[in-house]
Specification:
With 391 residues, the chain is of the alpha+beta class. The protein is built from 13 helices and 12 strands. The two termini are 20 Å apart.
């Protein structure tokens, strides 16, 4: 299969070494040197896995603390790590993967499906044929551990995510994209189709919604958010994966409209796939979402995400009521001498401040230097790979 039209590029693992048992009468304590060699081999496979994941579009950089290795050892067995090293970022049939692994197809199929169910690799169906591929840590492995997220993984990812996000700062193609909420665009102005969230989702055949993994993480870490937790939306292939893995529930187009309306009311930022053909929409808050939390740390969040708009406040109409300040997830609105002002370096154009302004003093203005949006996930990931120098 050369290229699946909606292929999601991600990564995974599965492997366990087994040692033949000595006959009972000859059973001896393992030689210390042998134990050392076995430990070296285990460490080596995880180091190779770390390097492998770092060569995916999302990257997986090292840290001084080594927290990234703790994550890999928690999620992957040595055998799973070895299997992952034999996968590619484009979906392949079991027969092809089995040949690389030196396994029969039945054994390979069982192991690959087990890894897909664990959220370590991607599963793609095309009729009766099943394909598997490696995936990035984000988007991919992290999100796919929604059902098995525990305190240890929550703490490890909380420590690691800022390092991962920092590695994206020099990349031209932004992994994070923000589009304005529907209510902020009701002023009759012409708006690009790809900035209208309902237009982006209108032709999707399969839709599902899942609990936000970031909100679940913060709940585990005793930093609960009072917004609804069920707010991550998947489409078509991504929805199929989530549904098969028991991470989401199927919804209708009408239910999707209801969720988007809820997001507007709850001041959630709309973050779809950075492509014209979207695979998901994350509805994010600044207190839970790892991406927004990281953006918030920067002096210029607007430089680190793709957004076609900026908010603008009419100083003649503003009465400084502060409603916009409370709804802004980026701390981009500040109090001026006679009116509130927008810090354009911090504004990500989400539009949350527009519909709730009692004086209608806020509007969105289009940027002129947004750049070209990738066609689909494959295009986006190819761009990321090229810009990171891994192609």
């Amino acid at each position: 299969m050369d290229r699946h039209p909606n292929a999601i590029v991600f990564m995974v693992l599965t492997t366990k070494s087994q040692f033949p048992l000595a006959q009972k009468k000859n059973l001896k304590r393992p030689d210390p040197d042998l134990r050392d060699k076995e430990e070296i081999m285990r460490e080596d496979v995880y180091s190779k896995l770390r390097e492998f994941l770092d060569k995916t579009p999302g990257g997986f950089p090292t840290t001084e603390s080594g927290v990234e290795m703790k994550i890999l050892k928690k999620l992957f067995t040595p055998e799973q790590a070895k299997i992952t090293l034999n996968l590619t970022l484009m979906p392949e049939p079991v027969s092809q993967i089995a040949q690389k692994l030196g396994m029969n197809e039945a054994e390979a199929a069982e192991k690959l499906e087990g890894m897909a169910k664990e959220g370590l690799i991607m599963r793609v169906r095309d009729g009766d044929q099943v394909y598997y591929s490696a995936i990035s840590f984000v988007v991919g492995i992290w999100e796919f551990h929604l059902n098995t997220l525990d305190r240890e993984l929550a703490e490890l990812t909380e420590e690691y995510m800022p390092h991962l996000a920092d590695s994206w700062k020099s990349i031209k193609t932004r992994p994070l994209r923000v589009v304005p909420i529907h209510a902020s665009l009701q002023d009759g102005k012409a708006v690009s189709t790809y900035a209208q969230i309902r237009e982006l989702a209108k032709d999707k055949q399969l839709i599902s919604v899942a609990t936000c993994v970031c909100a679940k993480q913060q709940g585990i870490l005793e930093n609960p958010c009072d917004r609804p937790k069920e707010r991550c939306i998947q489409f078509d292939m991504a929805a199929q994966y989530y549904l098969e893995n028991g991470m989401s529930r199927e919804i209708s187009s009408d239910e999707l409209d209801g969720l988007l309306k809820m997001g507007e009311e709850q001041a959630l930022v709309l973050c779809p796939t950075n492509s014209k053909d979207i695979t998901n929409i994350c509805m994010c808050c600044g207190c839970c979402c790892e991406n927004l939390k990281t953006l918030k740390r920067y002096d210029r969040p607007a430089d680190q995400c793709l957004s076609p708009y900026l908010a603008k406040i009419d100083p003649e109409s503003c009465v400084m009521c502060g409603v916009c300040v409370d709804r802004c997830q980026m701390d981009a609105i500040r109090e001026g001498d006679e009116a509130h002002e927008v810090d354009t370096a911090r504004c990500i154009g989400c539009g949350l401040c527009v519909p709730t302004c009692p004086e209608q003093a806020i509007s969105l203005v289009a940027k002129t230097d947004v750049g070209e949006i990738p066609e689909d996930m494959v295009d986006m990931n190819l761009r990321l790979a090229q810009e990171r120098g891994i192609l």
